[in-house]
Specification:
Helix content: 55-70%
Radius of gyration: 31 Å
Order of helices and strands: HHHHEHHEEH
Shape: elongated
Structural class: mainly alpha
Number of strands: 3
Number of domains: 2
Largest sheet: 3 strands, antiparallel
Low-confidence stretches: none
Length: 155
């Protein structure tokens, strides 16, 4: 017999989650297919056993740690949209001297005689640098591969 019923359809039938039209077709098929009836019975048995399991209880220490972590995230002060160069340095995890190397490239502006950077523009700047770096690495890889092939004389 040609069996066109998938395991996923049998699982959906066992879970009573198969579209009605397909359910009718599968039920007709089950009347003729012993293999699919056995598979459906095993799926229903497995569902019954899984349903009888008690949900695991997390250790109290894990629950406490999760609550503390969640509280930190929920109560963390909101990041400022406009950043000083010192905040930019902290955000980028750069020493002030290292920041000086890229300060000319930063999407900065002056406000009351102070240099400021908008956080959203800084993130966009970082993303562009990531893209440029990825393209450069891909180009370098292609150049190395081409060079290796040419040096081996396998062209």
């Amino acid at each position: 017999m040609n069996c066109d019923v998938t395991y996923e359809e049998l699982a959906a039938l066992a879970a009573q989650n198969l579209p009605p039209a397909r359910e009718a077709e599968v039920l007709v098929h089950l009347g003729d297919c012993e293999r699919c009836r056995r598979r459906l019975d095993r799926l229903r048995q497995a569902d019954g056993l899984l349903g009888a399991l008690r949900p695991p209880r997390a250790p109290a220490e894990a629950v406490l740690a999760a609550r503390k972590a969640l509280a930190e995230v929920l109560h963390r002060p909101r990041a400022q949209e406009i950043m000083t160069l010192e905040e930019v340095s902290d955000f980028l995890r750069l020493a002030p001297g290292q920041l000086a190397e890229v300060v000319e490239e930063l999407p900065a502006f002056e406000l009351a005689g102070q240099v400021r950077v908008r956080r959203a523009r800084l993130v966009e700047w970082i993303e562009r640098r990531e893209q440029d770096y990825s393209r450069h690495r891909a180009g370098s890889w292609a150049a190395r591969e081409t060079s290796d092939v040419l040096n081996q004389g396998a062209y």
